[in-house]
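Reviewer 2 asked us to include a model.

Predict the structure of this chain.
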Amino acid sequence: MKSLRRVQFALLAVLAVLVVGSIGYVLLGFGVLDAVYQTVTTITTVGFREVRPLDPAGKIFTIILILAGVGTVLYTFSVVLETLVEGHLRAHFERRRMDRTIAKMTGHTIVCGWGRVGRAVGRYLTGLGDEVVVVDLDPRRVAEIPFPAIVGDVTDDETLRTAGIMRARALVAAINTDAENVYVTLSARALRPDLVIVARARTDETESKLLRAGATRVVNPQRIGGQRIAAAAAQPNVVEFLDVVMHDGSLEFRLGEVQVRAGSVLAGRAISAPEVARTRALVLALRAADGTFLTNPPVDTRIQADQVLIAIGTEQQLSALERAASRAG
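Predicted model (structure tokens):
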């Protein structure tokens, strides 16, 4: 805005010089067109001869016009050139800096679309300390995003590569139209067969299409919103507790998930084993590789490789459980 005001001021100054110069030559006996022409040729120093011979008063006026007008024109030219170059260079350097930042990121989440759903996803993930890269077509919305973001079409493979899809942990397709979400899911799955893809669906019919396109999970915000409203009406305390644990952060405890890889020290051990008990995290459920859950498992249940532990505990307890799961047996 400061640069634009400088350009406006400079252009007004040139206009003022043109008006004053034209009026001065008219008073010296020039016609209106000749006066404007004489003023323009004088302040732009193009080197043409005078339209008509100048008397001493005309020469003195022309000298004053040259001193004032040429400086004004040069100033205006430099301001306009500086604004153009500065704008392009700033945008170029900002893009380069953003590209370097994204190139260093690993295990981040790509959020496609910065609408209401995309904003909620981005803020929640960054609140957890995760890294996020946002891709959106609207430059104005991208300029307001407080973390790495790029302007681009997420249906273009090159845009996804620029967002670091080959190093990303997950991708969230949160564009407004289901058709674009399906296309993004197809593109992302083709580039990264192992990528976690969470897609937004506006209708029930689109959910099956997104799953066939390769989405790991499909979320219908309208249906989930209705279910949360119903749950809040029926069991308000349970819903509020889960909200605090999952989103608020005001409680010491939170829910987390821990992947048990092959060769982990926890593989084959019971939930009551010392390796788990020392973490003091409470295992609420086990999820097998086929997606089935075992909730409230008995303490003698043996943990298998490639299972996911759903546990509740403090940040330190969950971190200890994750370190135990990552330790080789």
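The radius of gyration is 33 Å. The chain has three domains: 2-101, 106-219, 252-326. We have added this to the supplementary material.
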